[in-house]
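During the reporting period the student researcher (J.K.) took over the structure-prediction task from the postdoctoral fellow and processed the backlog of single-chain submissions. One of the processed entries is reproduced below for the supervisory committee.
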Amino acid sequence: MGSPEALGQSSLRTERTSARRDALGPFLTKKTVLSRLRSTKKELSARVERREILGVATDRGNTVFPSFQFKTDASGQGGNDRLTIIEGLKDMISIFDTSIFSDRVIAITLGRSRDRLGGKSIAELHAKDPTLAFAAIRGAILISKYHLGLNDADTG
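J.K. obtained the following structure tokens:
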């Protein structure tokens, strides 16, 4: 058994990891995504590289996939419904400057439900009103840049 300090640090890491996981929202493992997208590792990696899907690195070095970016197609068998990517995801992701915003931040921005959007996430809003969703994304980016002390002249 470790020292109280080591146990405290371990507990603090667990709390931080749990908070980060909660902020990210529900997610799917790489194995689940590969199976339910009917994809290979190479195809999935290429889609992440092309910014068609968000893969977020965990503290342990694994990649998880926030579930908001998928919808299910009930044609699967035995509860293993096929996944498809929500419409417009690549366009929503492309608005973010990746030199400023990590994939984790992008996922939280797009996937978290917001009171000011009627309890919907930006990704959910996009399905009903893409114009409003893009306005919400731009607003979130501007607020983040303000809090970071950046302006458009600094970031292009």
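The committee noted the following: Residues 93 and 106 are 7 Å apart (CA to CA).
J.K. will present the remaining backlog at the next meeting.
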